[in-house]
Design a protein that fits this description.
Pfam families: HAD_2. By secondary structure, the protein is an alpha/beta fold. Helix content is 35%, strand content 10%. It is built from 11 helices and 9 strands. Helix 2 packs across helix 5 and helix 4 packs across helix 5. It starts with 16 loop residues before the first helix and ends in an 11-residue tail after the last strand.
């Protein structure tokens, strides 16, 4: 068995060299997608109105716009207790969250969010390239599955992580659990979302993050690894490039900490036109850490 790790995603315990090579290629990764704003159209304004109404009903202080921008991807009862700080009583938090859900459905008036036009072609691309896909959402599983079936999208997802799967208040739990269901290490997962909460949670786990800005300014997402206006601008090559500069590491004897190997050649498993692809050709805007085009709302 070789002593050296060829890349952070390498697994020397694999006896099959072809399996090891597959793990090290830039095409070996999993995708974790958010639900609202990525797979189906967002209902941000309706959620906002529901929160304001439930605050008035229970006599709580109305949340400010800044707080409302922080709740994406967070379960409603967690929003009540930890984000808004309305109550620290779990039973009361569940009651308030349930009422907010009822108000949301009333405000929707029986309407259901339409599927994003770019979602199906993007999922087809992932399926064609054998990339496993998970859906991560704080919404109830029954509601999400019903919507996916209605839009004929359920078969594209290898795993669905919903409110029933999470006993944690943290968004990171959904992504970590989704990665385990996809059988991919966090460093080989790409989270696709539409807010800065997604970016922060993904990076906390060592995952890559792509933001579909939709109608938001791209410069609002300065910390994302990649920002696109819509999923239609996100190609398979774009995602492979996220792993092109994966640091090489070398194993040490005697249980010492794993460190970086000095200037080894990167693994050459890219397509012939890999380096020929340009940002303008793919129609996406690269998000550079600390630059003008990277973060979430």
């Amino acid at each position: 068995m070789p002593r050296n790790l060829e890349s952070p995603s390498d697994d020397p315990s694999l006896a099959n060299p072809l399996q090891r090579h597959e793990r090290m290629s830039t095409g070996w990764f999993g995708v974790i997608m958010e639900y609202e704003g990525v797979v189906v159209e967002p209902s941000d304004e309706t959620h906002r109105q529901a929160w304001l109404q439930v605050a008035d009903e229970f006599g709580y202080k109305r949340p400010l716009g800044q707080l409302l921008r922080r709740i994406k991807g967070v379960r409603d009862e967690v929003v009540v207790s930890r984000v808004f700080g309305w109550t620290h009583n779990p039973s009361v938090a569940r009651q308030v969250a349930q009422r907010k859900g009822e108000l949301f459905e009333q405000l929707m008036g029986g309407r259901q969010p339409a599927a994003m036009l770019e979602a199906r072609p993007f999922l087809e691309t992932l399926k064609r390239n054998s990339i496993p896909v998970a859906l991560a959402t704080p919404l109830p599983e029954a509601k999400v599955r019903e919507a996916l079936q209605r839009h004929n999208l359920l078969s594209y997802f290898d795993s669905i992580v919903t409110a029933e799967d999470s006993g944690s208040a943290e968004v990171e739990f959904y992504y970590a659990f989704a990665a385990s269901k996809l059988q991919r290490p966090p460093m080989r997962c790409v989270v696709i979302g539409e807010s800065n909460t997604t970016v922060e949670a993904a990076h906390e786990l060592g995952m890559k993050c792509v933001v579909a800005a939709n109608n938001s300014p791209v410069w609002d997402f300065s910390n994302a690894d990649l920002v696109v206006k819509a999923l239609s601008a996100l190609s398979f090559m774009n995602m492979k490039r996220l792993f092109a500069e994966e640091s090489l590491v070398e194993s040490r004897i005697g249980g010492e900490e794993v460190g970086r190997a000095p200037e080894e050649e990167p693994i050459d498993d890219f397509d012939d036109d890999f380096y020929g692809a340009t940002d303008n050709d793919d129609g996406h805007l690269p998000a550079m850490r600390g630059g003008a085009f990277s973060s979430r709302w």
